[in-house]
Design brief:
By secondary structure, the protein is α/β, with parallel strands linked by helices. It folds into 2 domains: about 110 residues, NAD(P)-binding Rossmann-like Domain (Rossmann fold, 3-Layer(aba) Sandwich), CATH 3.40.50.720; about 180 residues, 3-Layer(aba) Sandwich (Rossmann fold). It is built from 11 helices and 13 strands. The strands form 2 sheets. The protein has an 8-stranded mixed beta sheet, covered by helices on one side. Strands 2-1-3-4-5 form a 5-stranded parallel beta sheet. Strand 11, helix 10 and strand 12 form a beta-alpha-beta unit. The protein is elongated and about 70 Å long.
Length: about 325
């Protein structure tokens, strides 16, 4: 009987359910490992499923990946594995494109509504047992700039348009008539002054790292709100703190930060115009099942010799739209 391929699953203590992995286990030898055992577990493997997608262990174990042909990330972002040796290799990289699009879009809309309706202020007044009438903002007619034009950015654009907001985007290629974004521009600094809400959802690449710096925040409207659901490293954190502290921008909602986790004594925690969530904007109930299902469906393609879904351009660092 012909021996099946070896599939290594990198996890952080919690492994995918056996029932979910059954379509793979019936046709391959599956090795489960945490970071400390990755070098041994990946030796001889043709497939690596990075279920622990926050790992930084792969570069140190790369020397042992002697037969690897395909690496699948259990996330949309692939920056943890975009190191030079992998980029230069023939290993195909795929990601979990699509699973987190709608949940993250809902998170962004929720944060925008929270700002416009001052829900944080309402909670504070309730805790103080204070009945104080106030007026709130409309989001219909306000403007959003989405920085990053991948599938998550598109889902955000569609939801914000449905809520009556006007939407533009900044991406790598300019487009005058895009079905979701309307207009896609390439000059970030020219677009920032037009927006009431700026949503960062770009992938982390050498070109996007620290794109939101003091110059970018100075270009925004003083009443603008900044929402980051991309990567913390898109932002120069000290510049963001300064902009929020001085009133250069009005507020920020941060699902990702740099550094992450955010240290307990970091000044971002105590700024009254900041909302922080622990990198969970896409983590809906059942998301772990969905990322395993995405891998097993792509494994079907791999076994059958069909093209893989969601193949990452390793030069760009993301799946081209």
């Amino acid at each position: 009987m012909e021996q099946g391929p070896i599939v290594t699953v990198l996890h952080s203590g919690s492994v995918p359910g056996a029932d979910l992995m059954a379509p793979v286990a019936s046709r391959a030898e599956v090795r489960y490992t945490e970071a400390s055992g990755l070098a041994d577990a990946v030796r001889g493997a043709e497939v690596l499923f990075v279920y622990d997608f926050l790992t930084r262990a792969i570069p140190d174990a790369w020397h042992a990946a002697d037969r690897l042909r395909w690496l699948h990330m259990g996330s949309t972002g692939v920056d943890p594995v975009m190191f030079p040796e992998l980029r230069a290799s023939e290993v195909v990289v795929t990601n979990t494109r699509g699973v987190f699009d709608a949940p993250i879009a809902e998170y962004v809309l929720g944060q925008i509504l929270g700002f416009a309706k001052d829900l944080t202020g309402s909670v504070r007044l309730q805790q103080q047992h204070e009945w104080r009438h106030r007026e709130s903002e409309r989001i219909a007619g306000s403007s959003a700039l989405i920085v990053g034009t991948g599938s998550i950015g598109r889902a955000i654009a569609r939801l914000l348009r449905a809520a009556g907001m006007t939407v533009r985007a900044v991406g790598r290629q300019a487009r005058a008539t895009d079905p979701d974004f309307g207009t896609v521009a390439t000059d970030l600094y020219a677009e920032l002054p037009t927006a009431d809400y700026v949503i960062a959802v770009a992938p982390l690449t050498p070109q996007t790292r620290e794109m939101f710096d003091a110059k970018a925040f100075a270009a925004m409207k003083p009443h603008a709100r900044f929402v980051n659901v991309g990567r913390g490293e898109l932002v120069v954190t000290d510049d963001l703190v300064a902009a929020l502290s001085t009133g250069s921008i009005a507020a920020a909602a941060l699902d990702v930060v740099d550094p992450e986790p955010l240290p307990a004594q970091h000044p971002l925690w105590d700024l009254p115009n900041v909302r922080i969530t622990p990198h969970n904007s896409g983590d809906f109930i059942g998301w772990r099942t969905e990322i395993v299902t995405t891998f097993t469906e792509n494994f079907d393609n791999w076994i059958a010799g069909r093209p893989l879904d969601s193949v990452v351009d390793k030069e760009l660092g993301y799946v081209p739209s």
